[in-house]
Amino acid sequence: MTDAPLHAEGITLLGDLIGGRRVAMLTTRTVDGGLASCPHALPERAFDGSLWFISRADAPQVADIEADPLVNVSLSDGTALSLNGRALISDDPQLKRRAWDDVMAQWFGCGPDDPALVLLIVEVLAAEYWELPGRPPTLIPLVRDVVDVGRPALDGDEELSD
User: Fold this and answer.
1) Model's pTM, two decimal places?
2) Fewer beta carbons within 10 angstroms: which end of the chain, N or C?
3) Which residues form the General stress protein FMN-binding split barrel domain (predicted)?
4) pLDDT of residue 151
5) Cα(70)–Cα(40) distance, rounded to whole angstroms?
6) Residue 130, φ and ψ in degrees, nearest 5
7) Contact at 8 Å (CB) between 145 and 155?
8) CB atoms closer than 10 angstroms to residue 84
9) Rounded distance between C-alpha atoms, residue 126 and residue 133, angstroms
10) Residue 35 forms beta bridges with which residues?
11) 3-state secondary structure at position 64
């Protein structure tokens, strides 16, 4: 991933659409090639182009992300959001503390310094949303150069699209 900034209007729009939502579904590609989704609490923080989630280090999605960092995050509450991104795993105690709040304490029943917890940081690469019911999706203008770091080469004619 390069340091190219996300389009400012896209960040603002996504921040507004995410609003006060506190639960998102994180979808990963499993180590056997399937897809798996699970709910994650969203900490209260301003959207800056990435979403943060606390997870147990031994959770299946952590192993999935280690094998394939490309993920999808979805949220819905009158407006449906689909966010594609690259997930990073961090055990940095300071970052975990920044993501910690009362919801996390209830969700996990421990504190941010628990070594069994990690922080998942999803850098959003593409996003679209639907104003329900039945409207076509709207693409959100996000500009970020993608560099394939630590990802296996694609087979055959597969390509990553912008």
Assistant:
1) 0.78
2) C
3) 14-135
4) 41
5) 17
6) -125, 130
7) no
8) 16
9) 22
10) 29
11) helix
Residue ranges of the domains in the chain? Answer: 8-137
> Helix, strand, or coil here: 106?
helix
Structural fold of domain 8-137: Pnp Oxidase; Chain A (2.30.110)
Average pLDDT taken over every residue of the chain: 83
The string of pLDDT tens digits covering residues 16-68 is 999 888 899 999 999 899 999 999 999 988 899 999 999 999 999 999 999 99
* Identity of the amino acid at 48: D
Cβ atoms of 117 and 96 closer than 8 Å: yes
Q: Which two tokens stand for residue 116?
A: 């069994």
Is 15 strand, coil or helix? helix
Q: What residues contact residue 151 under an 8 Å CB cut-off, 6+ apart?
A: 68, 69, 70
- Signed CA dihedral, 2, 161, 53, 135: sign only: positive
**How far apart (Å, rounded) are the C-alpha atoms in residues 84 and 105?**
27
How far, in Å, CA of 106 to CA of 56, rounded?
A: 14
